[in-house]
Design a protein that fits this description.
Elements (H helix, E strand, L loop, with lengths): L6 E7 L6 H9 L6 E7 L6 H11 L4 E4 L6 H9 L6 E6 L3 E2 L3 H10 L5 E11 L5 E4 H7 L12 H6 L9 E3 H7 L10 H9 L3 E13 L15 H16 L3 H20 L3 H13 L5 H12 L4 H12 L1
Parallel strand pairs: 1-2, 1-4, 2-3, 6-9
Antiparallel strand pairs: 4-8, 5-9, 6-7, 6-8
Helix pairs in contact: 8-9, 9-10, 9-11, 10-11, 10-12, 11-12
């Protein structure tokens, strides 16, 4: 392995003028020095581009891409990825903040792993729009009973069935992205698809360390999950269809069925009837329809307004 590999940090920005300076400063101030920084602004309508140009003026080593047309997260990343020179990559949103030794720790950890490992991820801290502490990622998942251990190694079944990785904490070998051809630009969001496709051929390593402060501002993509008309749901359906072709054995299928049934319930109780039909269709296609699935399908056909039920449950369960 190289002793001082280049790490490319692709900083994606869209209307994040309020936080972009702090975010980029957290990359510039890393204890690890061999870093290529690319800032890609996806045609922001606020002052983001002006601030990015000022950053470039003070730090000439920073590369900037200012798109005149909004491309969406996946396509914007892929355009920036074409300029990447690093052995490792970090997809970094400019409303988040890196801990000063994040890159050094992740590079060092990669050096301890064998060549089968393509991704390293860590714990994270969530902050609000003003930077105030909200919670710690794995503390929350363990406390709510959503996770009992952090999966490592071959995580394919785990990522297909269950959300557990804080994607902003990932460092990825460039050859993983090369193999995948970058992100799938037909999708509204990238991480579920990336996890599923990459984990089929690469192992994942977990570093038990808070590397990143992830901002929950109310404007992030995650804040739109399971709203009526949520386009991300359709992307999730597409990834589930991909997983059908990637599955190798019955345990893989069981993992996917868990995901499909979860998304079916969420679709129905969030008022996303069309996506509910699609997820139920996957169960039919796989010939794995249970009586409980049929009942959910009838409930979906009734078209009852169930958003309030879901909201109440989530307030009680996940607050």
């Amino acid at each position: 392995m190289k002793t001082n590999p280049i790490v490319t940090v692709i900083c994606l920005c869209y209307n994040q003028a309020r936080w972009v300076e702090e975010a980029v400063a957290s990359v510039l101030n890393q204890t690890y020095q061999n870093i290529q920084i690319i800032i890609a602004d996806d045609a922001s309508t606020d002052d983001s581009a002006t601030i990015i140009e000022k950053i470039k003026a003070h730090h000439p080593q920073v590369e900037i891409l200012l798109f005149t047309k909004n491309e969406g997260n996946c396509k914007a990343f892929n355009k920036a990825f074409k300029h990447a020179k690093g052995d490792y990559l970090i997809d970094f949103s400019v409303d988040d903040v890196m801990m000063p030794n994040r890159i050094e720790k992740q590079v060092d950890f990669f050096q301890t792993l064998d060549a089968s490992f393509g991704v390293v991820f860590t714990d994270a801290e969530y902050i609000d729009a003003d930077g105030a502490f909200l919670r710690v990622h794995y503390d929350y998942l363990f406390k709510k009973g959503l996770l009992t251990r952090v999966p490592v190694g071959d995580v394919y079944r785990s990522v297909v069935s269950t959300y557990f990785i804080a994607s902003p904490t990932m460092m990825v070998k460039k050859e993983v992205f090369d193999e995948l051809g970058g992100y799938d630009e037909s999708l509204t969001y990238e991480d579920f698809d990336f996890w599923v496709r990459s984990s089929r051929n690469w192992n994942y390593g977990f570093l038990n360390y808070i590397s990143t402060k992830i901002r929950r501002s109310g404007k992030s993509m995650s804040s739109g999950w399971y709203k009526v008309g949520d386009k991300q749901l359709h992307s999730t359906y597409i990834v589930c269809r991909k997983a059908i072709l990637l599955n190798r054995d019955e345990d893989d299928v069981k993992a996917l069925l868990k995901r499909i049934r979860y998304e079916l319930r969420q679709s129905i109780f969030s008022g996303n009837s069309n996506e509910a039909k699609l997820f139920y269709g996957l169960l039919v296609e796989l010939n794995r329809v249970r009586n409980s699935d049929r009942m959910l399908n009838v409930l979906n056909k009734l078209g009852l307004p169930l958003n309030g039920v879901r909201d109440f449950y989530h307030r009680m369960r996940f607050r």
